[in-house]
Amino acid sequence: MKSGWVILDKDSGLFSRTAGGKIARMIGTKKFGHIGTLDPMASGVLPIAIGDATKMIPFVEELSPKIKEYLFSCQFGFETDTLDITGHEIARNDVTPTENDIKSVLPEFIGKISQIPPQFSAVHVDGVRAYDAARRGRTLDIPPRSVEIYELEFMGLRDKSWHFRMRCSTGTYVRSVARDIALRLGTFATVDMIRRTVSGCFDIKSAVKLDFLENLFNNNGCIGEKLMPIDFGLGGIPVLNLSDKDGSFYKNGGFIETDANDGMVRIYINDIFVGIGVVSGGILRPKRTI
């Protein structure tokens, strides 16, 4: 079984887990996971771990820059219950701001801000996911959270959609940003496009489409060759190479004496990645082994 990472350019209309499952089945495993769920409506970067790469998800999440970048667009003058075009309209005033109006308020949203996530979101409130409650007609009292927006740029008006680019911290909701910009301008907003171009150390430039992988699979191509290595995204962790003897002992749970500095290390045996270890007081202990 092949293991590694697929940097997927997810299409709109597809659930993140569904996309991961399709790729895993083509590779021949049930074992997969992903980092940073995308709404079904959203497209763009979705890092998917296949096989043993799933063991590295916590480490990649910890090491990756806590930055995401989105292209998004919205229509002003009405709002839906989901804050995007897939929902049911709940408010309208048909007030459309001008380009100058929008540009004048965007600086207010750059920096650390307080944001209330959408009712249709994965946020937990008293053990209940907000979207589960919303689907049952309940409105939860979702507390505001602190997020940071590094860049927020107006990209122009095309047809009825106002386009933006945003770089932000993890946990920032695009739909809430659009809603709050509209509220500041005395109107409503509904997002009609979200595309994630950066997610931590993963970039859209390295991403592949699901239909490309499906065509490759259907034509007897090797999807495994399109996998990034298991240790992709772990470059911030120092490397420690072990001899065959020490490596065998280590992989069986043994502790190894070392002069490496304290902290996490990437373990290799003959240049083959075998997992993450921890050095403390001159002793190497296994933490997560492949």
Secondary-structure element string: EHEEHEEEHEEEHEEHEEHEHEEEE
Count of helix runs: 7
> What is the rounded Rg?
22 Å
Main sheet record = 9 strands, mixed
**On the 0-100 scale, what is the average pLDDT?**
92
β-strand number: 18
What kind of assembly state do the chains in view correspond to?
A: single chain
User: Percent helix among the residues?
Assistant: 10-25%
Strand content: 35-45%
Q: How would you characterize the overall build of this protein?
A:
The chain is built from 7 helices and 18 strands. The chain has helices at 16-27, 57-63, 99-105, 130-135, 174-184, 210-218, 244-251, and strands at residues 4-10, 32-34, 43-50, 67-76, 78-80, 89-92, 111-115, 124-125, 128-129, 145-158, 161-169, 189-199, 202-203, 239-242, 256-257, 263-269, 272-280, 283-289. Strands 1, 2, 3, 4, 7, 10, 11, 12 and 13 form a 9-stranded mixed beta sheet that branches. The chain has a 5-stranded mixed beta sheet with strand order 14-16-17-18-15. The longest helix has 12 residues, at 16-27. The chain starts with a strand and ends with a strand. The mean pLDDT is 92.
Question: Quick summary of this structure?
Answer:
The protein is α+β, with helices and mostly antiparallel strands. The chain has seven helices and 18 strands. Strands 1, 2, 3, 4, 7, 10, 11, 12 and 13 form a nine-stranded mixed sheet that branches. It has a five-stranded mixed sheet with strand order 14-16-17-18-15. Strands 5-6 form a two-stranded antiparallel ribbon.
